[in-house]
Amino acid sequence: MIELREVTLTYPDGDGVITAINAASLKVGPGQITAITGPSGSGKSSVLAVASTLISPQHGDVLINGTPAAGLSRRETAALRRDEIGIVFQQPNLLASLTVLEQLELMSHLGSSRTRRSRSATRAKALELLAAVGLEKKAHKRPQALSGGERQRVNIARAFMNDPSVLVVDEPTSALDQERGGAIIELIIELTRTRGVATLLVTHDRSHLPLMDAVLTMVDGNLSVHERAALA
Questions:
Q1: What CA–CA distance (Å, rounded) separates 144 from 163?
Q2: For 115-130, what is each residue's pLDDT tens digit?
Q3: Into how many domains does the chain fold?
Q4: Considering only CA atoms, which of 152, 130, 149, 132 is closest in space to residue 140?
Q5: What angle do CA 167, 65, 105 make, to 5 degrees?
Q6: Which of 115, 116, 125, 208 has the most other CB atoms within 10 Å of its CB?
Q7: Cα(130)–Cα(99) distance, integer angstroms
Q8: Ranges of H-type helices in the chain
Q9: Strands 166-170 vs 198-202: parallel, antiparallel or unpaired
Q10: For residue 114, is pLDDT > 60?
Q11: Largest distance between two CA atoms of the chain
């Protein structure tokens, strides 16, 4: 579960400040997916950065499975993020020199000992996830041999390598056409349900909103519940 409680985030702007997030609250439970939509520059990406503990807010708190991030040291926050949060960035940012399988294996080895047993278990886990996203036959391909949709699937599989309880997703379909984008959203929903993660997703594409469990709108740093009737 992920919860934001009265989170406020500001940035300095000359003699004043810009409020990127204004006292925002939300809660997403296991197996649920909540979307945040709104115009560019409204603060959506800032909410994701705070939710994934990449940025600390000036006020309020982020709770991951009941653990408040505000009380943690930098090292403890990094460990929480590594162990509990999967992040799907807007661009896959795959390493050109690594195969699809190696992209996933690398994530699992961050901060862990690399014993023979752990390497074997890591490879098995990576192959399982590639099968889950339909890429088991592309395990030994490099990014340049993949389509845009396939690279995004690798991005998603990579986010699940450490069995996160929370998934944070930033505009996963922005570089894809409608058909491939729809397939990516369906994949995220399926993995959210089957793996019981709490998913927070930012999207500009209104066509995906009826598929979400909840939809929030961000405007000028203010987060509010989206009118469900408006999604039809």
A1: 27
A2: 555 888 899 999 999 9
A3: 1
A4: 130
A5: 45
A6: 208
A7: 12
A8: 44-51, 74-84, 100-109, 116-132, 148-159, 178-195
A9: parallel
A10: no
A11: 56
Query: Radius of gyration over alpha carbons of the chain, in Å?
Result: 18
Residue with tokens 């886990």: 125
Residue 184 contacts residue 154 (beta carbons within 8 Å): no
CA–CA distance from 147 to each of 4, 95, 155, 203 (Å)?
36, 15, 12, 21
Percent of residues, the chain, with pLDDT higher than 70: 94
Structure tokens at 85: 């949060």
Say if residue 203 is exposed, middle or buried (CB neighbours under 10 Å; 0-12, 13-18, 19+). buried
Identify which of 222, 173, 218 has the alpha carbon closest to the alpha carbon of residue 40.
218
pTM of the predicted structure, to 2 decimals: 0.89
Tell which residue, 210, 144, 197, has the closest CA to residue 29.
197
pLDDT at 91: 87
Buried b (16+ CB within 10 A) or exposed e, 80-113: bbeebbbbbbbebebeeeebbbbbbbebbeeeee
Structure tokens at 205: 């594409």
Residue 118 lies in domain: 2-231
CATH of residue 113: 3.40.50.300
Backbone angles phi, psi at 85, to 5 degrees: -125, 125
3-state helix, strand, coil in the chain (%, to 5): 40, 25, 30
Task: Give the CA dihedral 99, 103, 105, 108, nearest 10 degrees.
Answer: 180
